[in-house]
Every structure is written in structure tokens, then in C-alpha cells.
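Title: Comparing notes on inverse folding

I've been comparing how different people in this forum approach sequence design from structure. To keep things fair, I'm posting one structure and asking everyone to reply with a full sequence. Here's the target:
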């Protein structure tokens, strides 16, 4: 399937730091010190996922009854970091133009995948007690904390000028993004 993701790991967790009132350290702190150093929590979510199979098509193919694909005449595999292969993610010489009205030998999906995803989202929050049973929560959240680029799939239209090149980022996963929030519980 074109939507197959062979490997996906999602790790998530939250940890209340052991400082402040009703915690392991600082349970006898005064209100001012507890307000500054107590009540902190960190949380995070890491996602690691392999890429999806690449589907090579024929740009401007000439076949009367369906989609023409190029001929697969070699191994499209290349090695190295994605960053080093942006202009040649796979071996474009592994494909050739089939004659008119011939389907081509490339399979619908190659046994070769696009770039995967590695991202870390995190949050730092502080809970401040106000009155009995009420509290203020201050949050700093960041998506893609490490600012790791998430490359999109390479162009897979054989015959196109950008065939085999990665020209953009993956949709929905961009550069680091941070937001600040306040929440009052009463």
C-alpha cells in the first residue's frame, strides 16, 4: 500500500519535578520560594516513523488504458543522510522510458521508501496555588523542539525536471513552534 508505515514508535511521558510544597524536597519552603521553584512539571512526546513506499509514475506517459510507469532497469537505492541526498534522493538512472503503449516494468510501489519522521514535542508547566482549591497554570509548549527538518517525499514523476529531488518539507510537520499559555483552575 502507498500508505504503509512499516515502523512507528511514539513515546510520551510527564514528570512532576520533586520540588515544592507536598513534594520530596522543599515541603517546608516559604510561599515565595515555593512560588518560584516549586510546582514544575515537564512532559514530552517523541515520534519516530519510517517513510512510506515511493510510487514512481511516468510524466506524460503514452498508454491508452491506464497509468504508464517507467521501466525499472537498476537499483534505485542510494545511501547517506537525507540532507546529503536532497538533489538525488534515489538513483534516477535506475529508470528508463518505455515505448508508447507499453506499461513499463516499474512496480506500483517501489521497495524503497521516502524520508521518515523524527520529532520531539515538549512542554514545561508551572502550577501556582492561589486560594484553597484554586491554582494558576503557566505553560510553555514547543513542537519539534530540536528543530529537526522533516523532508517531504521526492518527486516521483519520471521525465519531470525535478525527478528524484526533495523540494519541500512534510505537510503538518514544520520548524520549531512555541506557544505560551495561562490556565486558571477554580
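Reply #1:
Here's my take.
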Amino acid at each position: 500500500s502507498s500508505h504503509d508505515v512499516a515502523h512507528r514508535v511514539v513515546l510520551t511521558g510527564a514528570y512532576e519535578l520533586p520540588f515544592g510544597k507536598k513534594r520530596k524536597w522543599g515541603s517546608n519552603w516559604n510561599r515565595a520560594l515555593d512560588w518560584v521553584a516549586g510546582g514544575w512539571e515537564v512532559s514530552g512526546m517523541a515520534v519516530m516513523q519510517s517513510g512510506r513506499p515511493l510510487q514512481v509514475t511516468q510524466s506524460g506517459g503514452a498508454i491508452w488504458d491506464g497509468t504508464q510507469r517507467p521501466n525499472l532497469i537498476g537499483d534505485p537505492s542510494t545511501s547517506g543522510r537525507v540532507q546529503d541526498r536532497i538533489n538525488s534522493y534515489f538513483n534516477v538512472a535506475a529508470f528508463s522510458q518505455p515505448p508508447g503503449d507499453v506499461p513499463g516494468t516499474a512496480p506500483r510501489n517501489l521497495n524503497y521508501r521516502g524520508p521518515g519522521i523524527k520529532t520531539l514535542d515538549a512542554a514545561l508547566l508551572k502550577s501556582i496555588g492561589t486560594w484553597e482549591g484554586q491554582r494558576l497554570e503557566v505553560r510553555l509548549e514547543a513542537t519539534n523542539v530540536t528543530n529537526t527538518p522533516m523532508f517531504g517525499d521526492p518527486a516521483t514523476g519520471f521525465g519531470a525536471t525535478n525527478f528524484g529531488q526533495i523540494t519541500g518539507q512534510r505537510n503538518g510537520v514544520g520548524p520549531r513552534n512555541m506557544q505560551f499559555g495561562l490556565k486558571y483552575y477554580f
